[in-house]
Amino acid sequence: MASGRHEKDDTRALSLGTKAVICLSVAAVTFSLLKLKKTLMDSRSRTLRKTCGVLKKVSSSRRVAIVTGAASGIGRATALRFLELGYSVACVDINVGAMRSLRQEIESSVNIPNENVHYLTCNLAIEEQVKNVVRSTVSHFGRLDAAFNNAGIEGVRASISDLSVDDYDAVMNTNARSVFLCMKYEIEQMLIQKTRTLSAEANLQNEDVAPIDRFGYTIVNSASTAGLSSMPEFSAYCASKHAIVGLTKCAAKEYANSGIRCNAICPSTVATPMVARFQHNWPTWQRKQNASFPVGRVGRASEIANAVAWLCSSQCPFLTGEMMIIDGASSA
Q1: Cβ distance 171 to 236 under 8 Å?
Q2: In the chain, is it the N or the C terminus that has fewer CB atoms within a 10 Å radius of its CB?
Q3: Chain mean position to CA 142
Q4: Residue 83 neighbours by CB distance under 10 Å
Q5: Residue 66: its pLDDT value, please?
Q6: pTM score, two decimals?
Q7: What is the pLDDT of residues 101-128, one digit of tens each?
């Protein structure tokens, strides 16, 4: 009898031992599974952080451009072209109504993120307002890589002896003074960025890389074929465009070794609101101009915008100090 009880006790003990082993095994497996889950979650978290870091880096590498005279004509076409190419763009103009129209066009586009555009209305002949354009652009987007200084007016039609000083000053202030002020503060910002880059890369071996290849800053000014020749009865306009050509050439040499390229476009007649005003005010004069093009038509704003975008791209780093003539072979 005693032996039977011992056997039952041994069986019960074995059963309890087996259960204990099973429980411990289950606990161990559960712990392992929890540890594996944590490892996977940590790995996923690291992957997400890495991905977010890459996305942030991609976002922060978006090129930033200022376009003046952005609400119409060549400026509008160029601002839209930059946005199509993935730039962040500060659109600058003095015309409130035209800026509103531009904003509506951009906001209705499914291909252009609204956060890539910054709208600024100002008078570019006033220094403090120009400084604010650059400050606001950098504050909004983080930096400045390119600029298309395009704001301008044609002024009145008159021979020099009949041109009032006020009319002359109005054209020179809007066309030439504004370009000078824009270049002054755009270049100042680019030089600040260059210094910061050099400081951050102090330990890197980049001495053999030319500044024009390393930094990629670009400025394109809107001149004209009138800035390379004459335009009788529009002497103020002609003089302002000659001034822009001179400013562009000087800046190109002054800042070539700082990684800032400066070029100008010199289009002839382009179908824009300005030319529409010429057509309205002086139809005979404009018809004669339109008929003079060997290609059989006037230029299109989109064609000039493509030229500006190319000048601002990384495809032509050796090109600086150039006055790009876009005139359908008129001056050939």
Answers
A1: yes
A2: N
A3: 12
A4: 21
A5: 98
A6: 0.80
A7: 999 999 998 788 899 999 999 999 999 9
Can you tell me which residue has the tokens 């005693």? 2
Q: Is the pLDDT of residue 44 over 80?
A: no
On the CB side of 299, CA atoms within 13 Å amount to 27
How many Å apart are CA 76 and CA 117, to the nearest integer? Answer: 13
Whether the predicted pLDDT of 329 surpasses 80: yes
C-alpha 79/C-alpha 190 separation (Å) is: 20
Separation between Cα atoms, residue 275 and residue 297, nearest integer Å: 13
pLDDT at 33 over 70: no
pLDDT at 58 over 60: no
Say whether 217 sits in a helix, a strand or coil.
strand
Print burial letters for 208-219: b (CB count within 10 Å at least 16), e (below 16): eeebbebbbbbb
Q: Reply yes or no on whether the pLDDT at 297 is more than 80.
A: yes
At which residue do the structure tokens 């890589």 appear?
145
Output the pLDDT for position 191: 97
Rg (alpha carbons) of the chain, rounded to whole number: 33
Q: Residue 278: what pLDDT?
A: 81
Nearest partner of 246 among 269, 228, 225, 219, judged by Cα: 228
Residue 193 burial (CB count, 10 A) = 17
Look over the chain and give the mean of its residue pLDDT values, rounded to a whole number.
86
Task: Report phi then psi at 225, rounded to 5.
Answer: -60, -25
Q: Report yes or no: 301 and 73 within 8 Å, Cβ to Cβ.
A: yes
CB atoms within 10 A of CB 25: 10
Q: Which CATH class is domain 62-326?
A: alpha beta
Q: Which of 168, 185, 237, 255 is catalytic?
A: 237
Task: Tell me which residue of 145, 147, 141 sits closest to 179, measured CA to CA.
Answer: 147
Question: Has 119 been annotated as catalytic?
Answer: no
Residue extents of the structural domains in the chain = 1-55, 62-326
